[in-house]
């Protein structure tokens, strides 16, 4: 019997992946670039067990048994088994597998849960089957954006050009500690499940959007180089502008899809408005927003502006939740909010609890194994401990 438990991070793209050139191999139309978020505040956790005594393959996600016939899951498993170490491959590859996975953040609410989930699964399985070398192309088979969660820091997913997709891999461009002043605030607007999955949304976009063709051919290639240069130089002004423009273009492409897919809602638009009014008032870019396929915002700021930005958000989006429910993630200094905040004139204040809560986090490391047996989500019979 072998059992392994791993945790893997969420990543947030600042240059978005949207559109595949091959749906089965999950090959993207353009390169993308992302920041990996700290495992301490948001992560997926997965235990995998193989044993000659297990009778069938089984999979539990967030406490619920799921179907193992999912083609993406089978493709990841097959790709890993194909790379099994020759010595014990025959025996081990015939053993049945139990998988138990959970997220400590809202699933499928546009918070990259599938990316963290598949990265975690592939990382844990690679360790279980002792597979060496690149595993980002295998994680890509689970969910495109998952390949970027295999590394910490700042990551690029290269679209590649080979037909079999073997060069469509992710690489780390800058390590976790490259730009330690960067902080991320995830503003959770709504954590119910989203209407259209990214997979379906992007398929519809590829079939119908003219704007997507312009984006992938003329916009993204240049933007990728520019954002890498901005992160390299720790140039927050350029980084923030490119990040916001790319988020806006991604949602414009979603609007150009027929029928259109709307992922942002009125609260998302209120956040965008707040950021622009505030940046204008400060005479420079202090906050950058980015939105994935959901209404929640991810804000990039610099640590020195944390107190002021949090006070701004609390003013614009008042809440009657107690502090530990409203502010999650990196612990806050109590005095952080006592500061007098000078506000832009005419800034809109929204109703109580328009925003649900905030997760305060930073750039973090890639997946890791948890060695302590207490961390396993499966018991010695291969059954979930928390069901
Ligand atoms: C908006 O990786 O979830 O988050 O490859 O079909 O599983 P599939 O899609 P997925 O798409 C993520 C899209 C995005 C942008 C991004 O993360 O780059």
Automatic annotation (TrEMBL):
Q: What single Pfam family name could you report for this chain, choosing any that match?
A: MVD-like_N
Annotated Diphosphomevalonate decarboxylase-like N-terminal domain ranges read 8-170
Q: Where is the signal peptide?
A: none
What keywords sit in the KW lines? ATP-binding, Cholesterol biosynthesis, Cholesterol metabolism, Lipid biosynthesis, Lipid metabolism, Lyase, Nucleotide-binding, Steroid biosynthesis, Steroid metabolism, Sterol biosynthesis, Sterol metabolism
Q: Which InterPro entries match?
A: GHMP_kinase_C_sf (IPR036554), Mev_decarb (IPR005935), Mev_diP_decarb (IPR029765), MVD-like_N (IPR053859), Mvd1_C (IPR041431), Ribosomal_Su5_D2-typ_SF (IPR020568), Ribsml_uS5_D2-typ_fold_subgr (IPR014721)
Q: Looking at the record's lineage, which domain of life comes first? A: Eukaryota
Q: Which GO terms describe its cellular component?
A: cytosol
Its EC top class is lyase
Query: Any idea where the Mvd1 C-terminal domain is?
Result: 184-369
**Which pathway is this protein engaged in?**
Steroid biosynthesis; cholesterol biosynthesis
Record field: catalytic activity: (R)-5-diphosphomevalonate + ATP = isopentenyl diphosphate + ADP + phosphate + CO2
Q: What is its EC number?
A: 4.1.1.33
Biological processes, Gene Ontology terms: cholesterol biosynthetic process; isopentenyl diphosphate biosynthetic process, mevalonate pathway
Q: Which GO terms describe its molecular function?
A: ATP binding; diphosphomevalonate decarboxylase activity
The record ties this protein, via SUPFAM superfamilies, to: GHMP Kinase, C-terminal domain (SSF55060), Ribosomal protein S5 domain 2-like (SSF54211)
The entry sums up its family as follows: Belongs to the diphosphomevalonate decarboxylase family.
Physiological role: Catalyzes the ATP dependent decarboxylation of (R)-5-diphosphomevalonate to form isopentenyl diphosphate (IPP). Functions in the mevalonate (MVA) pathway leading to isopentenyl diphosphate (IPP), a key precursor for the biosynthesis of isoprenoids and sterol synthesis.
Q: What is this protein called?
A: Diphosphomevalonate decarboxylase
Species of the source: Agrilus planipennis (Emerald ash borer)
